[in-house]
Specification:
By secondary structure, the chain is an alpha+beta fold. It has helices spanning 2-21, 62-72, 95-103, 124-127, 134-137, and strands at 35-40, 45-49, 78-84, 109-113, 119-123. The protein has one domain: Cytidine Deaminase, domain 2 (3-Layer(aba) Sandwich), CATH 3.40.140. Bound molecules: tetrahydrodeoxyuridine.
Length: 142
């Protein structure tokens, strides 16, 4: 189906952009560059890399950097996430980033990509089961 083909192309583009993004990582302390690309409901893609700081705790992960760029540009709903690293093993998103993803999606596909292009496909609900999300605070339940 045409729609499936387009969607797959979009995922390939998303992964490619995540792989490009780790090149911009500022990771002089960990030497662990991470790139993320987020496909939002508008079909726009926003990218991010990790940005570390001499005051280590101020580090921002690639995923939150990318999500916040989309949010700051008016996006509100995540459709897919890609996270890329240059290392042999793909990186799973940290707990903080999982919770921030959950703020802007009940569930969505998450692609984890290693340096040699190996992929793990998972999804947000599997990464953060029984999550506390914005619907609780809004008193609407699930
Ligand atoms: N990091 C990310 O950017 N995303 C992840 O999913 C895992 C960790 C960054 C934070 C820090 O700059 C470096 O990787 C090592 O923890």
């Amino acid at each position: 189906m045409m729609r499936d083909r387009l969607d797959r192309d979009k995922i390939e583009e998303l992964i490619r952009q995540a792989q490009e993004s780790y090149r911009n990582a500022y990771a002089p302390y960990s030497q662990y560059p991470v790139g993320a690309a987020i496909l939002f409901a508008s079909q726009r893609i926003f990218c991010g890399c990790n940005v570390e700081n001499a005051s280590y705790g101020l580090t921002i992960c690639a995923e939150r950097n990318a999500i916040f760029q989309g949010i700051a540009t008016g996006e509100r709903l995540l459709r897919a996430v890609a996270i890329a690293v240059p290392t042999p093993d793909p990186a799973y998103p940290c707990g903080a980033c999982r919770q921030v993803m959950r703020e802007f999606a009940q569930d969505c596909p998450v692609f984890l990509v290693s340096g040699d292009g190996r992929r793990i496909e998972t999804n947000l609900d599997a990464l953060l089961p029984h999550a506390f999300g914005p619907e609780f605070k809004q008193g609407q339940g699930e």
